[in-house]
Specification:
single chain; alpha+beta; Jelly Rolls; 2 domains; four-stranded antiparallel beta sheet; four-stranded mixed beta sheet; 18 strands
Length: 426
């Protein structure tokens, strides 16, 4: 990344934009014997449970989110974060790597992209890794080596490999080598920075009916064929600590972001898309809050960006994407209807207005509007206006297609089938 590009990144955290949680590698560890004793006595488990109880207070502390829907969303969100945090701590070993899929359609956080499959694995910079796979027909994917999780304060992205720049064999297979030293002759080599602890793959699926996800397998070349050592008490105590820290920090930090967006919201204005610290270099994110009465609708209008990928989606007040499986809460550039004048118009409403580009709030009177421009050559600024739901049709071009209830059910069925295919297991 160039210095000029580095300067374009923004933090935008909470109300102050000044913090991203604590750096995970800066956390102080107890001596080995202390942690072993904590596990053997049950204290480590008690600490984990106490931290979860404390974390639940973050849901209750959001006084403005006290409706039945928002509170239910909040505790479902926390429950799914808990399983994600446990998987992060207990199932990711850099010596014996494997992919963990999260966020996904159930474990949501950080305004994740409805069009993405996310693959995480822990790595160590002193080890060598091979990622092999098959390209298939997914629109694209980005592989990044990272300092860690953004919400924990580990915001550095050290290297990126774009699938479009990758060497792929005629049969669609590929190999990627991750290592600190250049292996020589490897067409897809990703250098490992000394502080890299994680590899992330963001896979983009745009045509939800036909695209087949790329396949990835990861192995550590330095430990292949070995067996891990037997479990010891101290590492398990620390994994419990790590899980609790990840869960609490994740919900707290993303709540701060959400509060910040809601506090900065201005009527009639949609925030511009920006490049964020901790996000991929080629992604520009537009994030803003909405407040919408039951009988109102929002109309967003924009020029079409010159981008390989772009989309609009709705995010709830906990900064988790809304239910894109069972509702039309997201639309990407292959799914959006473009009007005859070359503009795109998106309608946000609680009830179906019978137009192609409807984003369903699912009854959320407050939430976030998010749009992304990826691999873009420009950055068009959308306009936004709020009007009565009954006035939507008159506010759109006369030739805007009518979407019947039957057609909408068919569209939702196609979305459900797509998620079943891309997430065959929980």
């Amino acid at each position: 990344m160039t210095n000029e590009k580095e300067q374009t990144k923004v933090r935008a955290v909470g109300g102050t934009g000044s913090e991203l949680g604590s750096k995970s590698k800066d956390r102080v560890r107890n001596p080995e014997g202390v942690d072993a004793a904590r596990l053997m006595s049950g204290e480590a488990w008690d600490d984990f449970c106490d931290k979860l109880k404390e974390t639940g207070r973050h849901v209750l502390a959001e006084a403005s989110l006290d409706s039945e829907l928002d509170r239910s969303d909040g505790f479902r969100y926390l429950a799914n974060l808990t399983q994600a945090g446990i998987r992060h701590a207990f199932n990711l070993d850099p010596r014996f790597p494997k992919w963990v899929r999260h966020p996904d359609s159930t474990s949501k956080y950080g305004a994740e992209n409805a069009d993405n499959i996310y693959h995480f694995s822990k790595i160590r910079s002193d080890l060598r890794y091979r990622i092999s796979g098959r390209r298939n027909t997914a629109t694209a994917f980005l592989l990044e080596t990272k300092e860690g999780y953004m919400q924990l304060g580990d915001v550095e992205n050290y290297s990126t490999l774009d699938s479009e720049a990758m060497t792929v064999a005629p049969d669609g297979t590929f190999e990627i080598i991750l290592s600190a030293e250049d292996p020589g002759g490897a067409p897809n080599w990703v250098p490992l920075h000394a502080d890299a602890t994680q590899v992330l793959i963001r896979q983009y699926l745009c045509d939800w009916e036909t695209e087949v996800p790329a396949e990835f397998e990861i192995v550590c070349l330095d430990t292949e064929g070995e067996s891990p050592e037997p479990l010891r008490p101290a590492p398990i105590a620390r994994k419990l600590d790590d899980a609790a820290h990840w869960i609490e920090t994740t919900i707290r930090v993303w709540n701060e972001w959400s509060v910040g967006y809601r506090e900065r919201r201005k009527d009639g204005v949609l925030a511009p898309a920006e490049n964020y610290v901790g996000g991929a270099d080629d992604i520009f994110y537009g994030n803003d809050a909405y407040v919408l009465a039951p009988d109102e609708a929002i109309v967003i209008e924009s020029d079409v960006p010159d981008a390989r990928y772009w989309h609009y989606q709705l995010v709830d007040a906990w900064l988790a994407s809304m239910d894109y499986t069972n509702g039309q809460t997201s639309l990407n550039h292959t799914q959006l209807h473009i009007d005859a004048d070359g503009k795109v118009r998106v309608v946000i409403a609680h009830r179906d207005p019978g137009v192609p580009n409807w984003l369903d709030t699912g009854g959320h009177l407050e939430g976030l509007i998010q749009y992304r421009y990826i691999w873009a050559n420009d950055n068009p600024q959308p306009t936004i206006r709020t009007l009565k739901l009954g006035d939507v049709r008159a506010a759109l071009p006369a030739d805007t297609p009518l979407v019947t209830l039957e057609a909408r059910r068919e569209a939702i069925a196609r979305r459900q089938a797509h998620i079943r295919r891309r997430e065959p297991t929980c």
